[in-house]
Amino acid sequence: MLKRVALYIRVSTNDQTTKNQERELRAVAKRQGWQIVQVFEDAGISGAKGRTQRPGLDAMLKGVARKEFDLVAAWSVDRLGRSLQDLVGLLSEFHAKDVDLYLHQQGLDTTTPAGKAMFQMLGVFAEFERAIIRERIMSGLARARSEGKRFGRPRIGSDIEAAIQAARRKGLGIRKIARDLGTGVSVVQRVTAAMQGKQMRKAREINAS
Fold first, then answer.
1. What pLDDT shows up at residue 168?
2. What is the value of pTM for the model shown?
3. Active-site hit among 12, 46, 139, 158
């Protein structure tokens, strides 16, 4: 029974060509006795782009979900994504549908025992990478706090807040208030929401008494 294979090829700029990748992968498929059923291409699209911005990748993953082929072959890991986590995420989607992956440059073939073991190791390394990133973020936040830096939305002055509240009580619209006071619409919305919340709490207290 022939193994149904989809080729995924990608180049980052329009002055590059996908022909070399496709030619090499077709040669591999011929040697292995694979049947190429589809070729998915993203030409002139960076690997840093997400799935929604890479129509070839999106169509290929939909084909994986529908089990339209048994294996996806790509020239190199960086044709699929730009990080270890990208690769592990894709492999997980493939694994869930029993679709294998072949990466020509890295010699990764998950149809083999060695390839399956490599997939397990990639998961371990991806978790290690996530832990390092998380640790760096937390360390950076702690250092910034120790230097007195504040996070979150900037606080507005009490005079601006009072002016917004007074204007809302007069029935003025949010956009007009923002324009008149020279502040953002989101600021007026935030103060308005806080006012309404306070009024609702007060009403509940009165009803409960």
1. 87
2. 0.59
3. 12
